[in-house]
Design a protein that fits this description.
By secondary structure, the protein is mainly alpha-helical. It has one domain. The protein is 49% helix and 0% strand. It is built from four helices and no strands. The protein is elongated.
Length: 88
């Protein structure tokens, strides 16, 4: 199972009905960041060795291809509208 699949186990279908702002998406991504970087012995977050922007880059560009929740939400909404317009 890939890293991206583990992170996306959070139910993303809720994005369709919720109008979330940027701050909400950052809060949703916080557990993903914690999962990636982990915690030290004192249960404090470890220092990130790479930026989250680097992690979300495509693999061919040196990232892990982790899609930001905000992008996933936009794609799901566009897909839903496309299905409505096509009668599916």
């Amino acid at each position: 199972m890939s890293y991206d699949n583990v992170l996306r186990a959070i139910p993303i279908y809720h994005f369709l009905g919720l109008g979330l702002n940027k701050a909400s998406f950052k809060k949703l991504e916080a557990p993903c960041r914690a999962f990636l970087w982990g915690f030290n012995a004192e249960n404090k977050a470890k220092t990130a060795l790479v930026s989250w922007e680097s992690v979300t880059k495509m693999k061919r560009n040196g990232g892990l291809s982790v899609r930001p929740f905000q992008h996933v939400s936009t794609v799901l909404k566009m897909r839903y509208v496309g299905c409505l317009l096509n009668g599916k």
